[in-house]
Amino acid sequence: MMGKKHTMKSSRGLVADGGLRERFTFNPKEGIDNPVMVITDDADSVWTPIPRSCILKREDGEFYGFHLRVERGRQGHIIRNVVSGGVAERSGLRDGDRLLEVNNCYIDDVPHPEVARKIKISGHQLCLLVLDGEDYERAVSRGQDLKRLAHMDESCKPPRLCHITRDPVSGLGITVTPLEGEKGRFVVNPVAGGAAEKAAVCKGDRLVWINGAMVSDLTHSALSKMMKKCGDHITILVIDSETEKKYTQRRLPILPTMATPHQLPYRARTLHLISVSESFGFLLRLEKAPSGRTYHILREMTRGSPAERAGVRDGELLLEVNGESVESLKHEEVVDRVKLSGREVYLTTITPKGLEFYTQLGLSPLLFCEDDAADEGKESSVPTSAEENSPPKEMDVSSNLRLCSLQKGPLGFGFKLGCDPQSPGTFISQVASGGPGQSAGLLVGDIVEEVNGQSVEEKPLEDVTMLVEEGGHILSLLVTHKTCYNKMEKTETPSKDVTRAEEEEDYEISAL
Q1: Strand 317-321 with 174-178, pairing
Q2: Residue 204 half-sphere exposure, CB side, CA atoms within 13 Å?
Q3: pTM value > 0.90
């Protein structure tokens, strides 16, 4: 408005929180284009942290160039030692950042070893969502929901990794059409009842990846030739159009590591072996494959042995022992890891053809591992003779001893250890409802005799706790119940929480 001089009056006064605020008002008679302006410090109360997406791509033999740690006195998975000029730094990672997502999977509440494993098996491309360290601590102190902040819209569906086997009559049962005017983008449509539809390909899906190659780098002609030469099988990565838009808006890549698998012909398996003797009943050999590479091979399963009962097959390749990769270990080191597991061990295996399948696709065979050990319907690893016919989580060494096997959950093992200053020994002082400890059969008052096969009868509480923490995410406890626990409960018993062992130690992914 022209020709009129507008004036603002200011007033200064106390407000409810005891501070001073400058308040500007206007006189309605002097004009309607003057808004009421109030300068306050309330903006901080609606502060929302903004995570950053970092896309890391590395070449063969190249490291990502950062360490991931859990540190005493600090929360979250912490980015440290970002290599100057390395892949991580170029992607925007900074020292002190907190990791929220790995490949679009929220991990802030996931145990550190599991997060490390997700990163290690991701291959050559990694999508991380991080939050500045100061912003993370500020958000946590205010009780903000980090998962809601980080997580993609729940309406988004994950991409699908679909393995299609050619039908003798109808073929692959799929058509691929380029999106008009958009180079490197294709729509797929399955034939009703055909092989592609059976492999979970849906009408209108966007094709992202085929047999290890990104289609954004292919012309329609090249793509058609590739499909004609694929033989009897083809593996593709697809995603629905609406979800693709949301990935594009967030500038996120669509990776096989984010996908759900459908009809994959080979899967790695995690097997749980329990023994009541010194042997698991198999031989581990170092053998050379036709490619020239050497692998740790499982051989000569003894009839009726823990290995045979768990489903180990002759000639399978050993990938992990207790969740830790053995690929870079010497043969003697792998044997030692199995021996140090005590009376039970978790082995992750795959067939030679399975390894070849994933190698050709450029994927880790650990991405889509089947956990046979978690299958409640299988009892094959439990002794079945009359002498050993005890419940799955018990070992009939005597009428009071029980062997309890625990696999760490999101909140740890779900129990606390305690000791009585007046008597030797370490006992279970608390068992979390619904946790791994309760599922394994631990009872309040149980006396711990062995941890991962090592006797702890004469060891102090701190040493026992250290053994539990050093055992990784698999734990074997030999316990016996003490009937006089009620007497012990009346005394003050120092206890150490092992449900959050990750927060007590420094962990590190040292070769990223």
Answers
A1: unpaired
A2: 5
A3: no
